[in-house]
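Record 1 of the preview.
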Amino acid sequence: MPSDQRFSRINAGYFAICLLLGGAGAYYPLIQSVLELGALALLFITLPRLRGITTVPIAKGLLLLMTAWFALILLQLVPLPPAIGLDLPGRSWAIAVQREISLADSWRPLSLAPDRTARTLLASLIPAAILCGTLTLSKDGRLLLWRVVIAAALAGAIVSVVEFATGFSFSLWANSTRNAASGLFTNRTHHADMMLVGIIACGVEGAVRSGARWEKKWMLLALTALFAFALLITKSRSGLVLLPLAVFAALFLARPAEKRGPWRYLSLGAAIGLIAMLLTPTADRVLARFASLGDNPRYGFWAMTAEAIGDTFPIGTGLGTFRSLIPVWEPLRLVNPYYPNHAHNDYLELVMEGGALAALLLAGLIAIVVRALQHHRRVGNTAGRNPIFLLGGFAVVLILALHSFNDYPLRMTALAAAGAFALSLLALPHKARTRSFKSSAAAIASAIVVLSLSALSVSFALSMRAEIRDPQKAVALQPFSSTGWISLAYARLTEDRCNEAKEAAVQALRIAPASSTALAVLGSCAWRSGDEASAARWMALAEPLGWRDIIVQSWLADQSLQGEDRAKATPHLDALLRMDPENPIAGTTMMSLLADRNGPDAVAEALGVAPSWRHDFFENYRRTGVISAAGTVTLVEGLSQSPTPVTEAERSTIISGLQARGETAAVRRLSSGLIDNGTFSSGSGPLPNRARSSRDWRSGTAFGVNAVIGEIENPWDGNALIVSDRGIGTGTIAEQTMTLAPGLYRLRLAIRPQASVSALPEWQIVCQTSPDRRAPSSPLNARYDTARDSWQSLTAEFVVPERGCTTQTLQFVVADQARDPAILYLDSIEIISLPD
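->
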């Protein structure tokens, strides 16, 4: 076994590799396998050094907690008698699948996806190796690991700066976050966490260098500033919230005992630098993201995870099973093209997967952290104890623990390694009393376990890599992988080799019964063979497993339509469009429902929860016009009773389509107001030459006149229409087409010239007598009254005749060529129907 100094270097080298490569994520299984093999090797040489460490209370607690974690994983993987499995909560759908494939009487593990739980066991080896290794290191060995953290953070910061300099066109990993810096990680928030850990490490290094020249401490301050900047360009809201805490912790750790001298200048410089960074445009963009917190999908993730906990507690679903099982509890309103890979709350996800035992382990971890802090407070610096490493470790643990409330930092290998390192610092350094196993039998047994787990890790990694290109090879490499069998089943289905597809699907269900894709393959094969009853049975088993499978949702929608059950078909079509808003078959089918007698009500129910495809749906309606005027009115009125009624923009789109088809009566019925956007609150910027719909404002033909919607000083009510007139041309300034019923109306608006003008522009109503012909018009007889703050109130009455005026255009025109340049502001334009 290696000497203490060599072991320290080995530990530091492996820790560095984890921090540099551990941000690649699950999309790089070979990298993950390399880190797992390294963890097994490190554990093999570390285990003998742990003998006698039980004399250190905190270290003993951490080792017991680690042992309990692995015991929980093994407990979830041990097959249990069928009598136990039938009584477990929240598994009725799994039992139904097992009965269908004749497995109801077989022994099953507690985990509903044991292959994923086995991967969790392998992934847990990495932080376990770091934890055990650090517990046996001396103070110098632990300081070396702090410096590894600084070096890794610096490498990540340099990569993120390069990303920023290239406009985020460069990234280290193929699936990294776009349009934001992600450094050594695929996820920007995890890179932000690494920068926070790096800032704390700088504080620890500053404390260690308490007697060094101040130039070196200024260098640490420069590194801290670099890490803070690298965090800002991640655009991570959580990172920005936690940044002041990390900076405060670093300053607290680095302060000298006397709290005098240059430390004050360092603190002041750090505070000024932090404030300056928060005032930069980059920080402004991050702060602007807080405005969308109310629409954050994390709230939905938390709700469905809490529901899963309620259904499966106290047993849980199995560690590592969230991604494969959460669709069972995912409501239709949360379905979108992006798959929920984690709950974005590690505590909820942990309890969902591990049940009551995982919650107890979490409580035990909290108790150990509190006990370590209490011990430090009682003992302090006596007997040569230096609390810097302990406090620095606690700061890292606190940062990661807080971020775990709305993300999953500890499920990323690099941050899990950093967290394990920080936890181990809560225990005092322990000098290894021995470097060899107690007996040759223990060494042989440990070697067998290490080799077995190594083979398992490599087989899983190679299998995952081969799943897409060669699923047959994937299952040959790792027959215990349900995802490999699912990939093979789907591949054989597309090749029309149903016998092989069914065998692969059944094998997948034997491992993990929550695969809707495997059930869909069995249903599709039954349908192709003409066995409609079996197909319906398989698809019915897949239906409770969520909305995510395209084959299942397509089949269920088609069967509902064949049975003329429009209300039952629309949720399945809705799910298909949420996953792919451009799905041509689902989109066309949903549109065709509007032509049916009961279709508009069913479609209105689907549109009423504001699905992502709603905008495309209304645009397609405007272009195709497959629905009658009466059906359109039914749809809009149905939506008015929904949680999300038709917006003004959507109403304009619908009315535009009706106007194009000459449906004047329907247009009048659907017009929520006689004029659109009269307050100019919708949109900003120059008026378009051609409006999105005929009811939008559009610019006119007057030369030398510009009309722009924007903010002004001394406004009437928010935005206004700003008219800049150079006084060199005549014509229309702005106009909007309306559909008014015959009768008497009053035009009313607020107008304010920037300075006194010789003559104000005129208003007129132009009747559309035919699609390509307008009747001549004359200016309205307007009356101006003083309002407030230099604003004037304009009122004018006009009549829409009984004939020859199905649509009208309200125009704001300049006709006087001998006028001075002027700037006008207009707001609150409205038309009111008057009694005849």
